[in-house]
């Protein structure tokens, strides 16, 4: 019996993934290799929707890929590739864009949020059409399930709508993807502002724990994490958001429940709790950092793995796109055969 295919992507927009990326996406991707036919993509084309430096984009793309492998994604069991290495992504995005209404695209809340931050007049057309490229990413691979958080649910709905619309007009072509709600994913917030999500774009450097941070930097950031008035290591979303966030991180990395941790630290001070948590994070991240550095030191091997992943991705994307070209009425050309 064939396993459901899952597709997910991550942007190469920073020098390291952070704790929120790891717990919310990367670690889940590793686990999904056991149950799914997995396709994972470093979405460098999406990274162009905000200002970028070419040399930095290249470097960060390699860093992102190295971290995925270092975290436990197996390039033989999963397809791992860079989006720009498979030209069908851009080609399908154009076709889907011609089936997307302007009003439909303008209702995407992520565009509204990002445009509001940077000013709508300065926002690129690429940022506006980002969800259409995302739909192309998903539909190219006959994806059954897409792991999504609440912030991406609307984009997945657009992918579903476009698949249904295309199939209705041109005949069965695309699998209509379903949301895969990740079980028990911890919502990780900024260490300095527990009301805000941990995010490279909005958090201060002290509010983020990076996967590639040195152990001493991790210890320092955890020790300086904002806690709450009053003593007691207890989860209380409204009254103690700082400690609640730290308990979530501890629980997610050790597998102990928050209730077990509350019991163990009953009567303990914030200092001891943070010290122990810092060692938990260091223990989880140090091996990944070491493996990432080793992979980055052998660029030729990393590029070989990416070429292998791109070839495997192409073996699915190319026949899909050939069918799309035929269905929409393009003349067959040499590349379509």
Which structural class do you get from the secondary structure elements? Answer: mainly alpha
Give the number of helices: 12
Radius of gyration equals 21 Å
Strand content: 5-15%
Side-by-side strand order of the widest sheet: 1-2-3
Residue share in helix: 40-55%
The global form is: globular
Order of helices and strands: EHEHEHHHHEHEHHHHH
Distance between the termini: 30 Å
Main sheet characteristics: 3 strands, parallel
Q: What does it look like?
A:
- The chain is mainly α.
- About 55% of the residues lie in helices and about 5% in strands.
- It contains 12 helices and 5 strands.
- It has a 3-stranded parallel sheet with strand order 1-2-3. A two-stranded parallel ribbon has the order 4-5.
- Helix 2 links the parallel strand 2 (about 35-40) and strand 3 (about 80).
- Helix 6 (about 125-140) crosses helix 7.
Would you summarize the structure shown here?
The protein has twelve helices and five strands. With 337 residues, it is mainly alpha-helical. The protein has a three-stranded parallel beta sheet with strand order 1-2-3. Strands 4-5 form a two-stranded parallel sheet.
Q: What key attributes describe this structure?
A:
single chain; 337 residues; two-stranded parallel sheet; globular; 12 helices; mainly alpha
């Amino acid at each position: 019996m064939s396993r459901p295919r899952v597709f997910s992507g991550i942007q190469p927009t920073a020098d390291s993934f952070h704790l929120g990326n790891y717990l919310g996406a990367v670690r889940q991707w590793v686990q999904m290799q056991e149950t799914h036919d997995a396709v994972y993509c470093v979405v460098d084309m999406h990274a162009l929707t905000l200002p970028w430096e070419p040399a930095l984009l290249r470097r960060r793309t390699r860093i992102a890929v190295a971290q995925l492998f270092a975290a436990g994604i197996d390039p033989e069991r999963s397809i791992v590739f860079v989006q720009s290495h498979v030209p069908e992504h851009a080609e399908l995005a154009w076709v889907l864009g011609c089936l997307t209404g302007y009003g439909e695209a303008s209702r995407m809340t992520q565009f509204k949020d990002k445009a509001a931050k940077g000013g709508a007049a300065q926002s690129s057309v690429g940022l506006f059409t980002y969800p259409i490229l995302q739909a192309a990413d998903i539909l190219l691979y006959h994806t059954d399930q897409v792991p999504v958080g609440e912030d991406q649910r609307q984009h997945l709905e657009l992918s579903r709508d476009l698949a249904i619309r295309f199939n209705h007009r041109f005949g069965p072509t695309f699998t209509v993807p379903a949301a895969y709600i990740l079980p028990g994913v911890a919502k990780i917030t900024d260490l300095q502002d527990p009301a805000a999500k941990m995010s490279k774009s909005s958090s201060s450097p002290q509010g983020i724990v990076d996967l590639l941070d040195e152990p001493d930097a991790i210890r320092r950031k955890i020790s300086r994490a904002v806690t709450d008035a009053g003593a007691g290591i207890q989860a209380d979303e409204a009254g103690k958001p700082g400690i609640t966030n730290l308990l979530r991180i501890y629980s997610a990395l050790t597998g102990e429940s928050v209730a077990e941790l509350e019991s163990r630290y009953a009567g303990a001070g914030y200092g001891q709790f943070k010290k122990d948590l810092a060692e938990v994070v260091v223990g989880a991240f140090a091996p990944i950092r070491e493996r990432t550095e080793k992979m980055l030191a052998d660029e030729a091997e990393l590029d070989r793995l990416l070429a292998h992943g791109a070839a495997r991705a192409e073996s699915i994307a190319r026949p899909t796109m050939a069918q799309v070209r035929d269905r929409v009425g393009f003349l067959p050309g040499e590349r379509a055969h």
